[in-house]
Design goal:
Helix content: 25-40%
CATH superfamily of the largest domain: ATP-grasp fold, B domain
Distance between the termini: 7 Å
CATH architecture of the largest domain: 2-Layer Sandwich
Shape: globular
Oligomer: single chain
Strand content: 15-25%
Largest sheet: 6 strands, antiparallel
Structural class: alpha+beta
Order of helices and strands: EHEHEHHHHEHHEEHEEEEHEHEEHH
Length: 312
């Protein structure tokens, strides 16, 4: 693939701005080493004008958060006729809405933890708070409470008892108008990245403190240990990879994705938490670690992701 003019879309206005800037900077460096003419764009109100001015051969999307992951930027790029990395609009819509994705998994018979979802209107105007006692009956405790449309573990809280739920909901609603209450699965936190139709080695995130794998643990070097390949038996590894591929295909993803799973500590059963269309590309991100374990260094990974967008 000879040198092309590539824009790297990064930054933006979401709460994941700093992670996106870090991902984008690493991607830019790799693309330059690969011999491309690279333009980094911090996404803002002048994006369309800048894209028309640069007239890139393709866009590498390193934009985390809602605009980069919910189909907004993808639809804009399609209108402008610019090829781009990662999944199309429909898959982005399905994956960015955790409730939509989980219902799709349930309908397809793929395992995902039991859940309930409320939007802010239900609480403010329809008295949904009165239904909270039924949550314990339906899901049990502890629960995971999280925004329906944020990534990077932003706004995720654990509720050990019914008394913890209101504060966890307040925290989650500060990030989104819709919140998921999900049965907590104690066990091992796994991720399977998909690249060009194949599942890469499984990564396990092992928090080094008892607060769990939250936003800070994910992006602070030294807060979490990563095992890749994860120390799993062959059967569990194969099942995790098969399940991730099934979710990738079910939600209509293309080129690459990352599927997060839990392995139940008691039964070894695997359940799918979510799928991510714009996996991080930072030093602690899981897709680059998985690619490395498969024998593909960071530059080769970035080159492959771009090649898929260009059809090379």
């Amino acid at each position: 693939m000879s040198g092309r003019r590539i824009v790297v879309l990064k930054g933006g206005r979401s709460l994941e701005r700093q992670v996106s800037l870090t991902s984008g900077a690493r991607v830019q460096d790799a693309l330059e080493r690969l011999g491309h003419e690279v333009h980094g764009l911090d996404v803002g109100h002048d994006l369309v004008a800048r894209l028309r001015e640069i007239a890139p051969d393709a866009a590498f999307i390193a934009l985390h958060g809602s605009d980069g992951e919910n189909g907004t930027i993808q639809e804009l790029l399609e209108i402008l006729g610019i090829p781009y990395t990662g999944s199309g609009v429909g898959a982005c819509v399905r994956c960015s809405d955790k409730v939509l994705a989980k219902h799709a998994m349930v309908d397809a018979g793929l395992p995902t933890p039991d859940f309930l979802s409320f939007n802010e209107t239900a609480f403010k105007e329809l008295g949904a708070a009165e239904a909270l006692p039924a949550v314990e009956e339906r899901l049990g405790f502890p629960l995971v409470v999280k925004p329906a449309d944020q990534g990077s573990a932003l706004g995720l809280k654990f509720a050990g008892t019914a008394a913890d739920v209101p504060a966890a909901l307040v925290a989650a609603f500060s990030y989104s108008e819709k919140v998921v209450l999900e049965r907590f699965v104690p066990g091992r936190d796994l991720a399977v990245s998909i690249l060009d139709g194949r599942a890469l080695p499984v990564v396990e995130a092992i928090p080094l403190d008892e607060d769990g794998y939250d936003f800070a643990a994910r992006y602070t070097i030294g807060r979490t240990r990563f095992a890749c390949p994860a120390e799993l038996d062959e059967d569990t590894t194969a099942r995790a990879q098969e399940l991730a591929l099934a979710v990738h295909e079910l939600l209509g993803c293309r080129h690459f994705s990352r599927v997060d799973l839990m392995c139940d500590a008691e039964t070894g059963a695997l359940t799918v938490l979510e799928a991510n269309v714009i996996p991080g590309m930072t030093e602690t991100s899981l897709l680059p670690q998985a690619a490395d374990a498969a024998g593909m260094d960071f530059d080769a990974l970035v080159g492959t992701m771009l090649g898929l967008a260009l059809g090379d």
